[in-house]
Write a structure and sequence with these properties.
CATH topology: Mth169, Chain: A
Oligomer: single chain
Order of helices and strands: EHEHE
Number of helices: 2
Strand content: 25-35%
CATH superfamily: Phosphoribosylformylglycinamidine synthase subunit PurS
Radius of gyration: 15 Å
Number of domains: 1
Number of strands: 3
Distance between the termini: 9 Å
CATH class: Alpha Beta
């Protein structure tokens, strides 16, 4: 089975990389860009249950203090 895990900074956490990309995009296009947040994307192939993938995302792929994660089964 295939799972997708998306990890991104929590809304309350400053995202300097996202802010830098936003600034470059606004300067390049001369348009206001609302917000850009940078995250991580993982594709996981396994025969294990979604519960195992959730545990992997929570304990290894993300830092629960500053990041949120989402597990998607496409």
């Amino acid at each position: 089975m295939k799972y997708i895990v998306i990890v991104k900074p929590k809304k309350a956490i400053l995202d300097p990389q996202g802010q830098a990309i936003k600034k470059v995009a606004q300067n390049y296009f001369k348009k206001d860009i609302g917000d850009i947040r940078v995250g991580k994307y993982f594709e996981i192939e396994t025969q294990e249950s979604q519960e195992i993938v959730e545990d992997l995302a929570k304990k290894i792929l993300s830092n629960d203090v500053i990041e949120d994660y989402e597990v998607i089964k496409p």
